[in-house]
Design goal:
Blueprint lengths: L19 H6 L1 H12 L2 E6 L2 E6 L2 H10 L4 E2 L5 H4 L8 H11 L5 H6 L1 H20 L4 E2 H18 L7 H19 L12 H27 L6 H6 E2 L2 E2 L2 H32 L1 H15 L13 H13 L5 E5 L3 E3 L2 E3 L4 E4 L1 H4 L42 H18 E5 L7 E3 L3 E3 L4 E6 L4
Helix pairs in contact: 7-8, 7-16, 8-9, 8-12, 9-10, 10-12, 12-13, 12-14, 12-16, 13-14, 13-16
This protein binds protoporphyrin IX containing FE.
Protoporphyrin IX containing FE binds next to helix 8, helix 12 and helix 16.
Length: 444
């Protein structure tokens, strides 16, 4: 007789909360212990809802490829994202992805390089007095600002320099508020005027005003515009509703801001921790493009810099991959109930010792030409399959150019005594920020 598949094993749940409390207090610590005790598939409960955590690349392949039609995204936080591309499913998602995809193709990404250069030249200028006075710089704030300016300039044709701090504050309130609400068993509706709810709705309003302001400005200008916002306004000749465009603007702004801002921060952390790596990047830059920022043609020549970016995205991938099962399924021999939350942490898969020997060691050589081939699902900083990150190519080019701008002008050293630990909110950020001292490399 063939045995019925069982639910994956896991730690004993609290009768009402399931594993919410342990997960919320320390997601990576909790999941790492669960992997140690139960293996690569862990059965959990988030409140009363079944959840399955997957770490093994073979199992992730089933989720994102072989059985992908059985797994959908959950509509969360409609008040923030509305029906934007990252949260909708089915025909609506296909239509949106088709509309957006051309703006993320390599040709468009390369076309945006001069805009990225402008933003980075401004950063290098702004940092000069900070380097001269050797005062600590909060790099996490700087990198989130940079990520915001990048996405606004390249995709929305907007200069957010003066609004950057307000937008960043609103986005931070939303990120914390969403993480908090996700793990609350009893959620008061947002209209109940608690201080948290008021702050959350205030942040939504601030971003709404920004998005609707951009839309109104562009409609008033009436000219032809060759950017994504222009395409959204005139979707296939039909004027789209302001609400639909606002949903897309907020989705892209927040997806890019959180993930790119955090990824750039981790990159700077790596450069500060490994000065010999920064020096090698510096040498490569000098040999490839002299003292200029890399052009589109120069980027493929930055092989070592690219290895550093790839290895940083291995050690500090910022995203999570989360789906909900439509029907019951089997993954890795275990039953996945219908309506279960099935989730993957690239951060933990990228530390799977079977696929990444000595996983905690920072070693760009893992990505050198001729290094052993990877299991396609063992490295997923941008996800895999049809719902993988739309902005992956943007993020890589932004990372290469940011490293180039920073390293060719400055040496970074960590302010001593600070604790650097990852905080896995929606996007994995350094919990206490990242403070560095900038030292000029002596050529301006
Ligand atoms: C280093 C930076 C970034 C990282 C690590 C990252 C990572 C991710 C991950 C892990 C996903 C989820 C994939 C899944 O659920 O299967 C995702 C989705 C997405 N990302 Fe990114 N991302 C980054 C930058 C960006 C940028 C710059 C943009 C846009 C300008 C962007 C737009 C999106 C969108 C729209 C989705 C949803 C795609 C869909 O559901 O069809 N991301 N990203």
């Amino acid at each position: 007789m063939v045995a019925e598949p069982r639910l994956a094993p896991g730690p004993r749940p609290h009768p009402l909360l399931g594993h919410i409390r342990a997960f919320r207090n320390d997601p990576f610590g909790f999941l790492s212990e669960a992997i140690r005790d139960y293996g690569d598939i862990v059965g959990l409960r988030l409140g009363l809802r079944p959840a399955v955590f997957l770490r093994h690349p073979d199992h992730i392949q089933v989720l994102l490829k072989a059985h992908r039609d059985n797994y959908v995204k959950q509509t969360l936080f409609r008040v923030v994202f509305g029906d934007g591309v990252a949260t909708v499913n089915g025909a609506a998602w296909r239509r949106q992805r088709r509309l957006l995809a051309p703006w993320f193709q390599p040709r468009r990404v390369s076309g945006a390089i001069p805009l990225l250069h402008d933003v980075l030249k401004d950063l290098v200028r702004r940092w000069r007095p900070l380097a001269d006075s050797a005062q600590p710089v909060e790099l996490h704030l700087e990198m989130k600002r940079l990520a915001l300016l990048f996405v606004a300039r390249t995709l929305l044709g907007a200069d957010l320099c003066s609004a950057a701090t307000a937008v960043r504050n609103a986005a931070d309130v939303l990120q914390r508020g969403m993480a908090e609400r996700l793990f609350r068993i009893v959620r008061l509706p947002l209209w109940v005027p608690t201080p948290d709810n008021r702050a959350f709705l205030g942040a939504v309003k601030a971003l709404d005003q920004l998005a609707y302001g951009l839309i109104a400005e562009r409609r008033a200008a009436r000219g032809e515009s060759d950017d994504l916002l222009g395409a959204l306004l005139e979707e296939e000749g039909t004027p789209a509703s302001d609400r639909a465009i606002r949903d897309q603007i907020l989705t892209l702004l927040l997806a890019a801001y959180e993930n790119t801002g955090n990824a750039l921060t981790w990159l700077c952390y790596v450069l500060a921790r490994h000065p010999e790596v920064a020096d090698r990047v510096h040498d490569e830059l000098l040999a490839t493009c002299g003292t200029a920022l890399p052009s589109r043609e120069a980027l493929p020549g930055l092989r070592y810099t690219r290895m550093v970016v790839d290895e940083t995205l291995r050690l500090y991938p910022t995203g999570w991959i989360v789906r909900v099962s439509r029907a019951e399924d089997i993954i890795g021999g275990y039953q996945v109930p219908a309506s279960a939350v099935v989730f993957v942490s690239p951060y933990l898969t990228h530390r799977h010792p079977e696929f990444w020997p000595d996983p905690e060691r920072f070693d760009p050589a893992r990505f050198a030409d001729g290094a052993p081939a990877l299991h396609a699902f063992s490295y997923l900083p941008f996800g895999e399959g049809p719902r993988q990150c739309l902005g992956g190519d943007h993020a890589i080019v932004e990372s290469l150019l940011t490293v180039a701008a920073v390293v060719s002008h400055y040496r970074l050293s960590l302010v001593p005594g600070q604790r650097i630990e990852p905080e896995p909110l929606f996007s994995v950020a350094p919990r206490h920020g990242l403070k560095v001292i900038l030292q000029s490399r002596g050529r301006h």
